[in-house]
Amino acid sequence: MPLPRFLVEELASRVNGRSSEALLFTAPQGGVLRVRNFRRAVFDAAVRDVGPEGFHPHELRHTAASSAIASGADVKLVQQMLGHETATMTLDLYGHLFPDRLNEIADRMDEAACAPNVPHEESS
């Protein structure tokens, strides 16, 4: 997972002086934090407090993907981040979020064709 700098700073106190193999988030008595227990004890209570109703942890994955795309990540990076087997799967789920860049590509093609080092036929 990509880790933005603002999160690195937030998490620094949790990792300083710990083994690189240590769990970042643990169950209340230590050990592996199980999704079902975390959801029941923490996540669902937070959703009740701030909403939206019916929000579930998997939607955080969609939020991460959407944020990455909005930040300019290409489909292969989003595929890798989410662990999708193929870029096609990523595009099937998130293709509508990728910006329409046809005009941008047309402008780049025009710039390349008009570059000074591109030979042009002389008109007669």
UniProtKB/TrEMBL annotation:
One of its GO terms (biological process) is DNA recombination. GO terms for molecular function: DNA binding. PROSITE patterns: TYR_RECOMBINASE. It comes from the Bacteria. Keywords: DNA recombination. Residues 1-107 form the Tyr recombinase domain. This is Integrase.
